[in-house]
Amino acid sequence: MLHREVGYLGELIRAQTPKRLPVVLTREEVKALLDQLDDAGHAGADPWLIAALLYGAGLRLMECLRLRVLDLDVAHGELIVRSGKGDKDRVTTLPRALKPALREQLRHARAVHVADLSGGWGRVQLPDALARKYPRAPAEWRWHWVFPQQRRWTDRRTGEQGRHHVHPSVAQRAVKDAVERAGIAKHATCHTLRHSFATHLLESGYDIRTIQELLGHSDVKTTMIYTHVLNRGGQGVRSLLDALSVLPSRNG
Q1: CA geometry: angle at 180 spanning 178 and 183, to 5°?
Q2: Is 136 inside any structural domain?
Q3: Which of 42, 82, 85, 110 is catalytic?
């Protein structure tokens, strides 16, 4: 097809993307899922803490795994998502209940960083050519991952080693197994926790614009999908059958 005249194709119809309502867990199901993750430890990362951040801060999985130390403001309860979907930065809430677990995770990550530095490594990849502008930055603690990978990567050209963040499959497998152990029949994934975050905020009375900012949506129409979730099902409409005062007995 390269460098060829296509010619007139007639009236073309653009394919429509099918609209699907997001899967949303109840608060009880979220608690049951997190309870099952509580003992699912992993070297370099805590699946429970990752899942709790997805739900508590409304993060996408990669936004959570790409968190660097400087993105956390534990004292003020804020979390900065850098270069999220659409290459946008945003600020979202950092749950107070996670402060002790985050401090423990940071202590673990710092111990890994110090050990790497003592071994002659301890450098991390930086975005947007920042390493050329700030040559010492890759070795600085503040730029390192909150959830470091267990093994170091090696640059085949230079022999230099460093660490990536934890691979997403670690959290995905842990959440999948936890859903099964909790007996949750819904098709729940890591992203389901973000959907549940938005829906539960709406249920609690927060306005749609605030939720839009926390989720990082460019258009409020994207956020409006969660109002459709609230308006469907047994709590959205009262069945006409329930309004009947007398129903025939089905007890035989």
Answers
A1: 110
A2: no
A3: 85
Give domain status of residue 250, yes or no.
no
The total domain count for the chain is 1
Active site residue 191: yes
Q: For 19-31, what is the mean pLDDT?
A: 91
Q: Is 60 a catalytic residue?
A: yes
163, 195, 200, 217: the active-site residue: 217
**Residue bearing the bigger pLDDT, 157 or 175:** 175
Q: Does the annotation count 107 as an active-site position? A: no
Whether residue 245 is contained in a domain is answered as no
Query: Which among 66, 68, 194, 200 is annotated as catalytic?
Result: 194
Q: Is residue 56 part of a domain?
A: yes
pLDDT band at 133 (very low <50, low <70, confident <90, very high): confident
CATH number of 77's domain:
1.10.443.10
176 is catalytic: no
Question: Domain span at residue 75?
Answer: 27-106+167-221
